[in-house]
Amino acid sequence: AEDPLLTSFEDTIRRNDRIEPRDWMPDAYRRTLVRQVAQHAHSEIIGMQPEGHWIGRAPSLRRKAILLAKVQDEAGHGLYLYSACETLGVARADLMRKLIDGRQKYSSIFNYPALTYADVGTIGWLVDGAAICNQVPLCRTSYGPYGRAMIRICKEESFHQRQGYELLATMMRGTDEQRAMVQESVDRFWWPSLMMFGPPDAESPNTAQSMAWNIKRNTNDDLRQRFVDMTVPQAEALGVTPPDPDLRWNEERGSYDFGEPDWAEFKAVLRGDGPRNAQRLAHRRRAWEEGAWVRDAAMAFARRGPRPEED
Ligand code: ACO
């Protein structure tokens, strides 16, 4: 016999409509979403660390104000995404516990250090650029709260990307030393940015099912290609060279050919062996533990409820 709940879910997906929190959904759909949205939220929060390191070291008041606002936006993105995840029936404290215990992932890219101020620009240009490529299609993801969170996040991410590009363009108009700093930074971040899109399609266990459910709207390799095609002309305009000897325009495909990222390095970073994995998690754990009194106080205040005005 047909299951009417499942049929109704499948019809909604087929019509390209949204699934909402109170709708029935298969357990596996819910689990996949919790996995992806939690990982996405954790990425925003862990992603505050490499750039946050530079807030007290910014070269001018203007750069400091820009960076401060940007890192604050990332905290906001994390909060929208944790809220979206909570609509799936998981508690935020539980997600935080799983992140700290290494049971949920966050993006590989944030395990690389920001070593110079040029990295602040490169993270905006390449890392936020890759995030936009990945996230614009997710505005049409099938789960309502996730898709709606993505709309606002994408607007802010495009602003972040321009911010990074503008920083690098300013440095490229500076001294030879500054230009060398930008190139060195791009050399370090190029390949890890391509890895943000995930493993090659043939080795991506989740893509087929996630696309069938309209959770993902494109494959990892498609988005990686789209990112390269979007970014190479920007690199030319900036005057930097991506560190890929195989990068060239393919007239026939109307796209750039490019080399293979080092997937052994990607796997090592996912295993916890990237340059900054241990430090990122230790920092998050410390912040969570040191913030316990704030959460306790907020809960006590909430329990006490509103009080009549005193004179
Ligand atoms: N970093 C860490 N883990 C990754 C990465 C990455 N760059 N890419 C893939 N993985 C993990 C997947 O989570 C999965 O592991 P899991 O099953 O334990 O969760 C495994 O590698 C296999 O990958 P896929 O089968 O391709 O996984 P999936 O279909 O979830 O695709 C992707 C991965 C593309 C990252 C997808 O989850 C996605 O689009 N997420 C939303 C975007 C996002 O999280 N962005 C965060 C970085 S951008 C930013 O915050 C600024």
Describe this structure in words.
The protein has 311 residues and is mainly alpha-helical. The mean pLDDT is 97. A two-stranded antiparallel ribbon has the order 1-2. Helix 4 packs antiparallel against helix 7 (144-172), helix 6 (117-135) packs antiparallel against helix 7 (144-172) and helix 6 (117-135) packs across helix 10. It has 13 helices and two strands. It is globular, with a radius of gyration of 21 Å. The protein binds acetyl coenzyme *A. The site of acetyl coenzyme *A has 25 residues, from helix 2, helix 6 and helix 9.
Q: Order the strands across the largest sheet as they lie in space.
A: 1-2
Largest sheet: 2 strands, antiparallel
Provide mean pLDDT, rounded.
97
| Strand and helix order | HHHHHHHHHHEEHHH
Radius of gyration: 21 Å
Low-confidence runs of at least 5 consecutive residues? none
Shape: globular
Small molecules (ligands, ions, cofactors) in the structure: acetyl coenzyme *A
Global structural class: mainly alpha
N-end to C-end Cα span: 68 Å
Number of strands: 2
Helix content: 55-70%
Number of helices: 13
Strand content: under 5%
Pfam families: PaaA_PaaC
Protein name: 1,2-phenylacetyl-CoA epoxidase subunit PaaA
InterPro entries: Aromatic_CoA_ox/epox, Ferritin-like, Ferritin-like_SF, PaaA, PaaA_PaaC
